[in-house]
Please model this.
Amino acid sequence: MTFRLSIVLLLAALAWSTSLCAQRPDRTLPVQKDVAGPPPIAREFRAAWVAAVSHIDWPSRRGLTVAEQKAELLVILDRLVELRMNAIVLHVRPAGDALYASQLEPWSTYLTGRQGQAPNPLWDPLAFATGEAHARGLEMHAWFNPYRAFHPSGRGGDTASTHIYRRNPGLVRRYGDQLWMDPGDPAVRRHSLAVIADVVSRYDIDAVHLDDYFYPYRIRGSNGREVEFPDDETYAAYRRRGGTLGRGDWRRDNVNQFVRELYEQTRRQKPHVRVGISPFGIWRPGYPAGITGLDAYESIYADSRLWLQRGWADYYVPQLYWHPDAERQSFHRLLEWWGNPQQNPHGRHMWAGLFTSRVMPGKSNPQWGADVITRQINMTRDDRVASGHVHFSMDGLLKNPDNLSTRLTSTLYREPALVPATPWLDSPAPAAPAARLTRGAQPGSHRLELRSVETVPAPWLWTVQYRDAAQAWRTEILPGRQGTLALPAGANDIWVSAVNRVGAQSALVPVTP
Model:
C-alpha cells in the first residue's frame, strides 16, 4: 500500500468515525436539569426473531385454531411492547412456502399442518401481524429463507402441488433430509426475488430480512466425509455458457448476485423499506486474528464481508452466539471487526445477534444465565459502531428464563429507544407536530393531543418528553396513528417531535399550556 493511499484511508476512517459519533447520542439518558430542552432519546435497535421452523416460536405447535394463532401473535407483540423493544423479525417464508396469502407459493405447513392448505377461516397472518405491530409502534421485518425448499420438521404430507418442487423439480436438489433450491440456477434467483418483491409490494413491511442460510450447511455421509451439494448440472451449464470461475467462486458469485439484486430491487420498489442480513458470526477463521470456527466463506459460500463492503444491505446482524468469555470466538472482537470501516466503509447499521434462548431457567446452566445476555447488550453499547441487537429467539423472552425479561425491563430496557436512523435512504425529516394540552380526567393531569402539520399521512412515530413531579425526565414513544397521550399530574416542560419510517426526527418543539 502506498503512503498516499494510507493517508487517504486514514482520513476516510476518521471522517466516518466522527460522522457516526455525531449520529449516536448517549444511550444512558441522564437526567438533565436547568437546561433548554430534554436530553436526546436513546437510539438502539431492539428486536427478536420469531421463527416458524420446528414451531420454535410461532405458531407454537401444530393444530392451533386461527383464533389461537392470532392470540399467540398478540401475546408476542404485547411482550415486545412490555420490554420496550421496537421491532419484530417475523418468519414469513421458511421453505418455499408462505405464512401469508401468496399466489406464488403455497400456504406453509407450519400454519395449517399441511402445505398448501389455507387456514379456515381464511386470514392473512402477515397483514394481521403488520397491522398489530404498527398499532403498537413496532417495526415489521419480514424474514425470508431464499433457497430452502423443505425442512424435515415440516411434517403433514408431501409438498403441495403449487410448491416449486412440484411445479419445477429441476430447480430443486435433495441434500440429506432437506430439499434446497439450487442457487446456481438463474431461474431460482428470479423466483426468490419475485417472491420477496411480491411481499414488498403488497404489505406495509419496514424491512426485508435474510438469515444465514444460503448454500446449505455441510452434512456428512455414512463414511463420515462431507457430502458435496449436488449442483454438477448447473455448474456444467455455467461452463458451457462461457463461465470461467472455479466451483467455489461460482457458488459465491451466485449468492452475491442475489444479494445485490435484492437490494437494488427493494430500493426501486419502496425506498423506505430496508434490507437486513444476519450472517454467520465469523466471515472466515483468522478474521480477526486468533478467531477460529466455521468458514462460512467456504462452507455455505457466503461472502458477507463483500456485501458489507459494497453496501448491499442497510443493516447486518452477525450471529454472535458465543459466550462473552470465549477466546477463539470473542464476542467483543468479532463485533468490533464487523463494524470496522475496513469491512464497513458505508457505515451500515451493525446489530448483534444474541443466543437468548440458550439461557436456562434458574441456575441449571451457570455458564449461560441471564447475565450472559445482559453483558453482551452492554458490550454492544460500549462498541463504537454497534447500535442494537436481536434476540434469538422470542421463546427465550416469553418464558423469562432466569428472570431475563424482568431484568431487562428494570435495567437495560428501563427507557424506550428509537430505531437508529438510516440517513443514506435520503428521506427528509418530517415537520414538527402541532400539539395542545387539555384538562385530563384526574386532578392536575393533562391530555396531550398531537397532529401533523403536513398534508401527507401521520408520521410513523411521535415522541413526547416531559419532567415528572420530581423533575426527572420521562420519555414516551407513540405510534403515529395514536395522536393522544394522558400525562400524569405534575408533568411539566413538555417537548414533542415526529419521526418518519427511516428514523429521521423532526425538530423538538415545546408544548405550552
Observations:
- The first helix runs from residue 3 to 23.
- The two ends are 63 Å apart (CA to CA).
- The chain has two domains: 45-424, 428-513.
- The mean pLDDT is 91.
